[in-house]
């Protein structure tokens, strides 16, 4: 790329535009190759800006990963909300579980960015990333109905969440083979949903009987 072309591209980015362009570009790279594919140097080259330019918005690669992961969670949450709004005979939990499975298998690079790195673990409480990730769990809680005594809803939400996540990761790693493959991962996830809904209903009934 000629120096004139580089200068022209640099001048097209206003202060906020370059930040957004970096986040969008990083999401594309993660989609293709997972979180390890994200490189500030490569993104600067793709966008036609100087190597120091991205650092006006992100102190380092980790800071970029935080912003990209937060955006990934926001997109994921929008997809989950859309899945539960559509008319369906299936329960909200069933639709959320299926949407998560579809997302995890179809956009596995983004899924690994969100759930298979330490980026979320380091996010301070109340931060952009923390709030976006907590919204995801909040949608799972809502799908299980109104609040219950003794954190029953939270316990069962965690159970289905870890189960679906495990199914996605096992499938992505090619470990659901042989006899396990005959079950079908979608059927497996729906079995988890039914078990969770039945277990929560029974736990609520038991809690009511003991009250």
Provide an overview of this structure.
This protein has helices spanning 3-12, 15-33, 40-47, 61-85, 92-106, 108-115, 128-143, 152-172, 179-183, 185-210. It starts with a helix and ends with a helix. The chain contains ten helices and no strands. The protein is elongated, with a radius of gyration of 21 Å. 26% of the residues are buried. Helix 8 (152-172) runs antiparallel to helix 10 (185-210). With 211 residues, it is mainly alpha-helical.
Features:
211 residues; mainly alpha
Radius of gyration: 21 Å
Shape: elongated
Helix and strand content put the structural class at mainly alpha
Number of helices: 10
H/E series, N to C? Answer: HHHHHHHHHH
Main sheet makeup:
none
**Terminal CA distance:** 73 Å
Low-confidence stretches: 5-11
Strand tally is 0
**Approximate strand percentage:** under 5%
The residue-averaged pLDDT reads: 89
- Name the helicity range: over 70%
Write the layout of secondary structure elements.
Layout: H1 3-12, H2 15-33, H3 40-47, H4 61-85, H5 92-106, H6 108-115, H7 128-143, H8 152-172, H9 179-183, H10 185-210
Helix pairs in contact: 2-3, 2-4, 2-6, 4-5, 4-6, 4-7, 5-6, 5-8, 5-10, 8-10
Compact overview of the structure:
This protein has helices spanning 3-12, 15-33, 40-47, 61-85, 92-106, 108-115, 128-143, 152-172, 179-183, 185-210. With 211 residues, the chain is mainly α.
């Amino acid at each position: 790329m000629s120096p004139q072309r580089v200068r022209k591209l640099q001048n097209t980015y206003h202060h906020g535009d370059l930040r957004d362009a970096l986040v969008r570009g990083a999401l594309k790279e993660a989609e293709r190759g997972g979180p390890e594919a994200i490189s500030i140097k490569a993104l600067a080259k793709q966008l036609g800006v100087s190597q120091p330019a991205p650092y006006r918005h992100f102190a380092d690669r980790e800071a970029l990963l935080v912003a990209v992961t937060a955006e990934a969670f926001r997109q994921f949450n929008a997809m989950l909300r859309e899945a539960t709004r559509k008319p369906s005979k299936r329960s909200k939990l069933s639709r959320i579980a299926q949407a998560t499975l579809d997302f995890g298998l179809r956009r596995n690079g983004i899924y690994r960015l969100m759930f298979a790195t330490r980026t979320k673990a380091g996010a301070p409480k109340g931060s952009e990333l923390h709030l976006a990730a907590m919204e995801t769990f909040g949608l799972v809680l809502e799908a299980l109905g109104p609040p219950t005594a003794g954190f029953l809803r939270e316990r069962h939400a965690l159970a289905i969440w870890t189960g679906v996540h495990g199914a996605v990761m096992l499938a992505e790693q090619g470990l659901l083979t042989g006899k396990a493959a005959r079950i079908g991962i979608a059927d497996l996830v729906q079995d988890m949903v039914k078990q969770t809904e039945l277990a929560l209903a029974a736990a609520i009934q038991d809690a009511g009987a003991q009250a």
